[in-house]
Amino acid sequence: MNASATSMMRHASMFRRCIAVAMFALLSLLAQPAFASPEEPAMEPGMEFIKLRPELLKAGWKPVITREQDKDGTPINQIGEAGNMYRAGFIEVEYCIGNLVYCLFYYSRGKDCLQIVTEGPYIQLPTGHLPRLHRWTSDCHPPEPVPLRPRQR
Predict the structure, then answer these.
(1) How far is residue 9 from each of residues 18, 23, 90, measured CA to CA in Å?
(2) What is the dihedral of CA 86, 91, 96, 99, to 10 degrees?
(3) What 3-state class would DSSP assign to 45?
């Protein structure tokens, strides 16, 4: 066999290997479920936080209340837009910042942590509710939880 024929066979063999690897990768992706597992809610940037939160709670994520305080001793989760969120029942809000109102929320489940960042103040618009999910991560250290106390009458 001449050098040209050997080179063509080598290229054809490499091409077949590349096709095989590509097919394996594609089949691996297709084998993954296209939806979240039953224990985890599906999360997509832009989704309404007001719809996501009940799903998080149903999946066993517990709200974590921050102990962080401002210089004057006021809990940071009760200042500004965070205070509005807290009073609306989102007790897991840590703080909010910026003109676009990015808010930080923490959840825990066992030793796992979930940090949620939303965008937008808590209002109802004709197109839906704000805030909306901006991003999330499990690479976080939640603030020290505060034990929930019954309301005093």
Answers:
(1) 14, 21, 65
(2) -50
(3) coil
